[in-house]
Amino acid sequence: MELNDKLKLAFQKISLADTILLVSHTSPDPDALASVGAMYELCSILGIKITTYTEKKIDSIYSFIPHEEKISSNKPTSLADFSVILILDCGSMFRTGLEQELKTILASQGLAKITRPYIIEFDHHESQDAFADLEIRLPEKASTTEIVYDFLKANDFNINKNIAECILIGLMADTGNFLHANSSFDALAASSQMLLKGASLLKISSRLRGVSSLPSLKVWGKVFEKIKFKQDTGLISSALMKKDLDELLTIEERVKVADIFGDIVSFMSYLSDVKIALLLREDDGRVKGSLRTNYDEVDVSLIAKNFGGGGHKRAAGFSVEGHLEETEDGWKVV
User: Fold this and answer.
1) Which pTM was predicted?
2) Is 121 in contact with 7 (CB distance < 8 Å)?
3) Most Cβ neighbours (<10 Å): which of 32, 109, 152, 258?
4) Tens of pLDDT along the chain (334 residues)?
């Protein structure tokens, strides 16, 4: 099926739904929340009953995103209650936080007298598993909100200020304020259209740059203090252990700086002679890794997949159980 036909079919299924569940990935970032916010606005206009879910959402960090306060971290009791489930920016079923529930729904396919929700997926990550009835996966897009923009444009849906702000937030967040290599012509063109629809570049930029607080500067300093660089491979790495974060930040401060790790590892990737940047951090019994590169011949998503993660060619991540130990050459997960 051609992309335009997929976009039109998605709109048809959504517009005919009585109830819809909007889902994005666990520990949602601005693109995830903004994608849900944009679709929340659309479904509200269409008069559809809406439920939202993002696992491990931290409230109020991104309160500038339209409808952020309506996005719930409470798991829905029954997926069978929905006409449509729209999954945004997830990459895999596992990252929805609803893996077992979705598998149960999918297993009911073809059973007599059982109807199940129609599952649609919008995503800009490389595929890890295919499970949706309608998958609109475009890894070449800068953000999932850019896919939302294409979806609305293909269906001649009027983009209001709330939707425009959501789309621009996702684009700016996932392109590092248009500094990263994924800042394509299409991404910039979509962003300019969102400005014409009333989105505020100054407001969004200032909120997304909210990393210049004293707590965040402490984190940046600790990361730079612990940097290790391998000249032969071009790998730069650093790590934040639980004791580092406990010494640097209160619980409240940790919540406020939750999204700076991507900015830090992106900065590391631009340093001289760096081919791959890796930032590791301990978090609640797990080690989370963020990878970045600016080299065309390097695909960090392949590295992330070796550890059960994923992402894009230039930006990827993973999460594994364990804790960090420092070695002479770097760090290991034990």
Assistant:
1) 0.78
2) no
3) 32
4) 899 999 999 999 999 999 999 999 998 999 999 999 999 999 999 999 999 999 988 887 888 999 999 999 999 999 999 999 999 999 889 899 999 999 988 887 665 556 789 999 999 988 778 899 999 999 999 999 999 999 999 999 999 999 999 999 999 988 888 877 788 899 999 999 999 999 998 888 877 765 456 777 788 888 998 999 998 899 999 999 989 888 887 766 666 666 678 888 888 888 888 999 999 999 888 999 999 998 889 999 899 989 988 888 888 889 999 999 888 778 888 8
- Domain annotation covers residue 45: yes
Same domain, 184 and 316: no
Q: Which of 164, 179, 208 is the last residue of a domain?
A: 208
Per the structure, the complete domain to which residue 116 belongs is given by 3-208
Number of structural domains, the chain? 2
- Whether 10 and 132 map to the same domain: the answer is yes
In this structure, is residue 332 part of a structural domain?
A: no
